[in-house]
Amino acid sequence: MEISHRVSFNAGAKPDFKAALDDMGVEYKIAPLPGQSSGLVYLDITESDKLWIQVKELIQAKGASDVYNTMFTSEEILNAEWIRLVPVFEQGYPQPENTMAWKEFTYQNGCTECGVDYRQKAPFRLKKEPRLGKHDFLCLFWTYTVFCTPNALAVLEAHRIQGYEVWDAILHRTNQPSQEVSQLVFSQVAKPGLASEDQLQPQVCQQCGITKYAYHKRGYMHLRKDSLLPDTDIQLTSEWFGSGRSGFREILISNRLAQLILENKWRGVSLKPIELI
Question: CA-CA distances (angstroms) from residue 146 to 92, 131, 167, 201, 215?
């Protein structure tokens, strides 16, 4: 297990930050910013790096965006009974996107205040066929969804993976199903079981009364074993996660399905093992 940080800042606004990185010998890259000559400085560094403590102190002293994530080894993943499946390859927006009307077409019963407790009632509509490259899984922006290729779907079916439905993804202009991806829809929901240590920054919605937690980023998520449903390979957490007016349930997959993903070297999702208590 390793904690990785993506640190970024405006070079023009924080020249002393950049100079300090140079003095420390920290490698970074610079991305152009529209209308500015200085650019965006960004770097990736793990907490095991010998320079991390100095970079951390620099962030605390001078300020910078610090987005972190936990990376697990294949061995850690395969040693877990249940694993979180996190969509990481995002492309395209649900249609129609201009007025956010896609939510009305696709979901029902969602809370208008906190954005949780929705149910999918209709297939997602895509602007065009996605360009997957070497990816096997896809998530649409603004959503927490899983679409997969026909090849990946065939493998899931051949191994009799349980716990999903296959829905067409509809091309918005032609009203025809996509030939590149189908959506995997997960309807089975576990019982409440999130450990108190992982109930981060709880927010109780004044409108619907549902509690939403901050996204889990550091280390293992802990769940009660007796909260999980038997005889399935995929289920959702009872708990909701997110911020503002958006939220999602974590996708939990069995060790059997995680093995398939690793063996086939499928891209587009990240696997994060769970510790059962």
Answer: 13, 15, 11, 26, 18
